[in-house]
Amino acid sequence: MDEVEVVVAHSERATLRVGDVFLKVDADQARIDVEVEAMVLAPVPTPEVLWRRPPVLALAAVQGTALGRLGEPSTASTAAWGAAGAAVRTLHDAPLPARQGQAGRNREELAAELDAECEWLVTNGVLPADLVTRNRQVAEAAFRPWTPVFTHGDLQITHVFVDGDEVTGIIDWSEAGRGDALFDLAILTLGHEERLGDVVAGYGTGVDLDVIRAWWSLRSLLVVRWLTEHGFDPFAPGCEVDVLRSRM
Prior knowledge:
The chain has 8 helices and 10 strands. It has 248 residues and is an alpha+beta fold. It has one domain (64-245): Alpha-Beta Complex (Aminoglycoside 3'-phosphotransferase, Chain: A, domain 2), CATH 3.90.1200. The strands form 3 sheets. It has a 5-stranded antiparallel beta sheet with strand order 1-2-3-5-4. α3 crosses α7 and α5 (181-189) packs across α7. The chain is globular and about 50 Å long. The model has no long low-confidence stretch (mean pLDDT 94). GO terms for molecular function: transferase activity.
């Protein structure tokens, strides 16, 4: 009998693996609706939907291995990272979905949330004030006009699977929708700055590196509290706090 592997679990959702099947348990069916619709529309490899019985969505495992993990060196080839960039470009060039996604949040709302998180980090002594202030300044570059594209919205490297030099699948589409293209590229390369050139080479034109770096700071500042409250460690080597320190 196949063992049950807990891929990720926290108070909002959980993903289990049983053999070649992933079971996503989510009490918020709207997120599952978004995920299923996005996988139908996306012109890139996505998991096959096996069945859906709320609150569970069953997906077939995709071939290959994840592009890497945050906090660990990636063993994927330069060509694989370039292929990931090309796949993201294919997604961004696709017709726009109806929904606004995680990468398309209102500028004023996002700035207000960022200010609140920065204040919390400093007031509670989680991070030094100079570190927070410097990264808040860097993050400003992300607040600029942008043209909406079809974004994944949570394009962590663990969500991109490759086999050799080819992308075999992109998973976890619950945050997909209209959004900022450079948000996707920033999340993909977060903590792997040395791979940014490979991704951009595959992606092509229209990439502002200062905005990518701004999103690294912005994203990291926003998630430190959430990660610590949900059992993750943003202080682990190579993870979010190290990303913030690299901007000093």
